[in-house]
Amino acid sequence: MSPRAVPPPSASRALIPSALLVERFRADLGRLIDVSRDVLLVAVSGGADSLALLLLAQAVLGERCHAATVDHRLRPGSAAEAAMVAKLCAERGIGHRILTGDLPERVARTANLSARARRLRYRLLAQHAAELGGAVLATGHHGDDQLETLVMRLNRGAGVAGLSGIRRQQAIGEGGRLVRPLLGWRRAELANCVAACGIAAVDDPSNVDDRFDRARLRKLIAGADWLDVERIGVSVAALGDAEEALAWATRRAIGERAVLAPEAATLDPADLPDEIVRRLVTACVAHVGPDGEPTGPGVARLIAALRRGERAMLGDVLADSDSRTAAIPRWHFRRAPPRRSR
Prior knowledge:
Elements: H1 19-30, E1 40-43, H2 48-61, E2 65-70, H3 78-91, E3 95-99, H4 113-131, E4 136-138, H5 143-155, H6 160-163, E5 169-172, E6 176-179, H7 187-196, H8 213-222, H9 229-257, E7 258-261, E8 264-267, H10 274-288, H11 296-307, E9 312-314, E10 317-321, E11 331-335
Parallel strand pairs: 1-2, 1-4, 2-3, 4-6
Antiparallel strand pairs: 5-6, 7-8, 8-11, 9-10, 10-11
């Protein structure tokens, strides 16, 4: 879809967000980066969310705000949308780069098109951030995105990791960092910010296409004014803290209970909490078969079989238990032998 026309104000006459919004954003961004020194690379698609992030970031950081648009070349209008963002950035004196690349190969059944596009996008953005001297990458995820993600993952039976939602910051690439300063903001107020600055954002038709789960959920949430996105965000943050604690415990348990060898692993699961066992088995499977993507239901079935003393497979990983012969049972993981063709 082609972007709407953008008014061509000069950089000196360009409308900017209100002082109240800028100060609110400065406080949110200041919890994640050093606003007096750090360089920020804003990922801008042309939608209202990322454009609002760009406008607010430039107002706070000035020349230390840069932008990049990833053209996945998956839709006919993507090049025009990227060009629109480039033009807008040029008018406002913001350094901008259009990034392109080839989609990663599909390596597992769960690696669908959107997942591969996401991997490409973050790889290209992380590389460009590094080229800018270690800039911090920022994306326009907001409070409504957080709520939609939480509900969708609840509906799929996600555990603590999934319900920890979209994190405010995380590592990315080799030594890079990603921040999301808009998680306390609503979609509507970001759209109003962009419109008030005289900019018409790109409309992604998939956002209102009922063929997509998120689009249908978005319409339901829009009509539920009793939902408190800010308080839900507090709960998600608490789940994120719990996830970090479990990850810390898992790292310690790997050192104490697992032996990782080339293409093989051994695990002592005795007396460990179920959640730690699940995470350790997932780590062993990922170590032995790094090309696979073990899912929650698959790992649960594998653990159930091992507890029964049975041999089982997950992807290209073969696992078995020596519970019938050993005084202290161990679970063993190794690469399954190649299947012989008939």
